[in-house]
Amino acid sequence: MTSFEEDETEETATCLHMTFYHPCQQDKMMFRCLNFCKREQVRADETAKFGRDSNVCHYNLVDTRVSRIQFSLQFYRKLNSSEFCFEIKNMSKKTKLTVDQTELGYLNKIDLPWKCIICFGDYQILAEIQEGEAMDYFETHLHLAKVPILQESCLPSLQPIPEKGIFPSLSPFQGKSPIEIDENESC
Description:
- This protein is mostly beta strands and about 190 residues long.
- The chain has one domain (about 10-145): Tumour Suppressor Smad4 (Sandwich), CATH 2.60.200.
- It has helices at about 5, 25-30; strands spanning about 15-20, 40-45, 45-50, 60, 70-75, 85-90, 95-100, 100-105, 110, 115-120, 125-130, 135-145.
- It has a seven-stranded mixed β-sheet with strand order 2-12-1-11-10-7-8, with no helix packed on it. Strands 4-3-5-6-9 form a five-stranded mixed β-sheet, with no helix packed on it.
- β7 (about 95-100) and β8 form a beta hairpin.
- It is globular, with a radius of gyration of 23 Å.
- The protein starts with a helix and ends in a 43-residue tail after the last strand.
- Keywords: Cytoplasm, Immunity, Innate immunity.
- InterPro entries: FHA_dom, SMAD_FHA_dom_sf, TIFA.
């Protein structure tokens, strides 16, 4: 037998890809302590913590408006399954954490969907889980977005817009009938 045949089978690790965005990231450089574009291994028995306190959090956000520990991620395997998952927990007493449309208060936790958007304050994080087999560790792979992850959807105006483009001064109607517009036209 050759040494190649005797080598351990290489297992792939579950990888959590996280793409970060903040509107002031160029000016305030709050992501300067994050290691972008390089995979990092995290032991399965460790909790990945994100926040301002570099003594406690491995993923440090340099921003006084971020809690000492903003949120944590715990890697686990579902009962009677080979499927690996992450549980996200809001660790901030002051700021709610939103995972897609689910709002988490202090110490609330949920399973992280395979692809979701995590928001708190002005922070936006796209999280995507890439499956693997390794049980002793997982990997994180951080990215920086140049544009907002959540694009403002085209919302209809609260005030009807007249066809002539002239806005009434005080009252939107001033004794006139409101102008009906299709909500798709206001974009």
